[in-house]
Amino acid sequence: MASLTGVPYQDLRWQDIPGQPFGNGVGYNGVILGSVENIIDMEGAAAVEGNVSSYRGMSIGFGRMGQQTIPYDPYVIRFLAGGNVNIAGALTVVGNVVTSGNEFQVGSGSTYLIGKSDAENQQEELAALYAADGSPYWAPTDSGSHYIISGYDVSRRIPAARLSADVPAFFRDARASLLCSQQAMAALSANGSVVPQDDGFLLTGTDPQQNVFDLAWPQDGSLTGALTFDTPQGSLNIVRITSGDTLTVANGLWGSEEAAQRTLYVLLDANTVEMTVPAAIHGSVLAPQTRWNSRTTGGSINGNAALAGITVQEGSGFELHWFPFVGGVTGLTSCEPVSLPPQEEITASDCICCCTTGIVAGYVLPNGQCQWRLKLQLLSTRQVLSVWQGNGMGAFSFEVAPEEDYLLLMETCCHYEIRLTQMGVRSLSMRG
Questions:
Q1: Which of 222, 332, 386, 427 has the fewest CB atoms nearer than 10 Å to its CB?
Q2: C-alpha 24: how far from its chain's center?
Q3: For 87-108, how does the pLDDT look when each residue is reduced to its tens digit (9 = 90+)?
Q4: Could you give the angle at the alpha carbon of 346 between the alpha carbons of 343 and 348, nearest 5°?
Q5: What number of CA atoms fall less than 13 Å from residue 357's CA on the CB side?
Q6: What is the DSSP letter of 233?
Q7: What is the pLDDT of residues 37-68, one digit of tens each?
Q8: What are phi and psi of 388, to 5 degrees?
Q9: Residue 371 φ then ψ, to 5°
């Protein structure tokens, strides 16, 4: 898995992988669909759609516990940012750095370690890729097994435009795929039990391949005990967590390190996580609509993290640790959502998305953080049967009678797109 971290700068694109909810984004320790503030370390690669800022330095891609288990690579992007980067301390990365924002400022001593290729002119190519204004003389340093890109005189990165790389398209596809995966995970059948135990929960499953659990998080964050698994060794642990708009983490231990790469937490409702203790979360977190706030002195997510943003309190040592999710989820259908333009009608026979009888589900992709309200109407009577609402991107799911015809009515003041992941109904129209 370490050899797959990141994506090559020659082919910057998102790809789905069967059975892998993170797609080729599994090569990133964090896929953040928003901004990142003050995180100090991501053991694996990092892809951030928005801005990256920190009053201190940042280390990316050095592998587990600082031991360089991730190999050098001549082409892979280990730090990708769609917005501006402002880091007061040194940025150290095992791999290439590509950003598409106008601003890029990192501290003196910033260093990138680039693997060697078979090209005779690689050093010259690297010099051209990382060329920066204001540097009277500079060249990559040959360090034997790799080249060193040093920011001792000016801040260096590869501008996305220099590669003709479409970074917004990468993150647009990432968002669509991750939200689709979240919906598909929500449709899996639960086969494990969740039992309260010592202020925490014991999650028990017997399936040797995959155990799916439904956990209702306390609204007041009163859970203080551990989340403990009793499942066959080698099986996948998938925990779907329902909560209020804000999920408070006040317990210090989720799962175990030995099962981290086979454990996945899917946050279905939370738009914000408030981490009030230095919790060790052993497993990946699939929550592309959720912003993660670490308000404590430490803690970590030990797995992949697909989130809407990360804010770390100044002085906190909260980190992302490199335990990539192994994939192989049974029942995870291919995420090829259908776009539903306004005024258009589709039928079940036209639908290439996964179709579960009696369910209409998908997600809203607005152009910005604006409020929206989505109403489900019975087409024959225009009676409103159910309403979903949100602010920014979000998922929806309606229970319907499969033999009826329905209308989705969108109320919002901004441009938007609706993508379906489930359409178990005879026909569906959209207006807004």
A1: 222
A2: 11
A3: 999 999 999 999 999 999 999 9
A4: 160
A5: 2
A6: T
A7: 999 999 999 999 999 999 999 999 998 765 55
A8: -120, 145
A9: -80, 150
CA torsion sign, 252 to 257 to 258 to 262?
Answer: positive
With beta carbons less than 8 A apart as the criterion, state whether 35 and 51 touch.
Answer: yes
Taking a C-beta distance cutoff of 8 angstroms, is the pair 149, 130 a contact?
A: yes
The 10 Å Cβ neighbour count of residue 88 is 13
Q: Which two tokens stand for residue 286?
A: 């699939």
Which letter does DSSP use for residue 24 in this model?
A: G
Residue with tokens 């790469």: 261
What span, in angstroms and rounded, lies between the C-alpha atoms of 177 and 337? 8
The first and second tokens of residue 132, run together, are 């920066």
CB 140 within 8 A of CB 148: yes
Of 367, 363, 350, give the one whose Cα is nearest residue 398.
Answer: 363
Taking Cα atoms as reference points, which of 311, 317, 287, 284 lies closest to residue 299? 317
Residue 239 has a CB neighbour count (10 Å cut-off) of: 23
pTM value is: 0.80
